[in-house]
Amino acid sequence: AAMALVKARTTIERVGKAAREDATAFSKAVIAEEKSLVSITAAEEARLLALRNAWDEARAAEKAEAERVECERITKIHLRIADIRAVVGLANAAKTVECNELLDRLIAFKLDGFEEFSDEAATVLAETTANVSKIYDAKVAEDAERARIRAEQEAERMRLAAERAELDRLRAEQAAAQAK
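^ thats the sequence. predicted structure below, dont judge the formating
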């Protein structure tokens, strides 16, 4: 009975070993066949992936360029709006005539090319025009006040000159009367 069990065990081990060797050989054959089949499509796969990657990169470059162009367009519009705002500073530093010219240019300014920022540009233009108009009115009032002061000073100078002339005439008469 013990010998029958030993024989059964050794037979099972031998058959198991043979089955494992057979499975290992089958596994190696499957791996070799897999490599053979993969090598058939590997070159085409690499070529197609390269094409796809090149296409993706081209789309990404186009998108980046479109974003750059859009950003540049928006920046230019914002710079134009900032230029409109800057007119207030120019008006403050300008003489009355130059300030009037700036106001005329603002009034004649056409809001073209501001696209989606047209409302903002219109608001800035209206505010700037109102501010420059106030500055112009203040400069006109200052000029008028200076002219009034100059006229008063000139009138005072003329009055003093007339008084000096009268005083000189009276002194001359008095000196003539004393000399007689």
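Helices lie at 2-93, 96-108, 118-179.
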